[in-house]
């Protein structure tokens, strides 16, 4: 049995923190904004969906996300995974290409564009591991 979130509320709190870290990072944030790859993530086990896109003029940070499908943009790529897979990924313990091949992550759309973002987001792994260590030790993998 892997590291598990206490429930959907904790999952969303932690994911909001990760997205904020990436959005506000002086290196990652602008690169992710400039890449401009709108994405939709579905987390089946916690019954949640989040849509993420590059921040637009006048919006804070480099990324904008919304926890529903009531959006005014079309995702370029869609991914579906468990909260456990997301947790492993952000700790640098889940290889996306392998997870896709083994169907731990189901994808549609421009997967190549999403995979191109992985090198940009790698610095968040250490940041997230530090947050897990300090505040959510039950999530450590």
Walk me through the topology.
Layout: H1 8-24, H2 28-35, E1 39-43, E2 48-54, E3 63-66, E4 77-81, H3 83-90, H4 96-101, E5 105-109, H5 111-115, H6 118-121, H7 123-135
Parallel strand pairs: 1-4
Antiparallel strand pairs: 1-2, 2-3, 4-5
Helix pairs in contact: 1-2
Brief overview, please?
By secondary structure, the protein is an alpha+beta fold. The chain has helices at about 10-25, 30-35, 85-90, 95-100, 110-115, 120, 125-135; strands at about 40-45, 50-55, 65, 75-80, 105-110. It has seven helices and five strands, in the order ααββββααβααα.
* CATH-level-2 architecture: 2-Layer Sandwich
Tell me the major beta sheet: 5 strands, mixed
CATH superfamily membership = SCP2 sterol-binding domain
Classified by CATH, the class is Alpha Beta
Instruction: Specify Rg, calculated over alpha carbons.
Output: 14 Å
Count of domains: 1
In one word, what is the shape?
globular
Q: End-to-end distance, in Å?
A: 11 Å
**Total beta strand runs:** 5
| Sequence of secondary-structure elements | HHEEEEHHEHHH
Fraction of residues in helix: 40-55%
CATH topology: Nonspecific Lipid-transfer Protein, Chain A
- What is the arithmetic mean of pLDDT? 95
Which stretches are low in confidence, meaning pLDDT under 50 for 5 or more residues running?
Answer: none
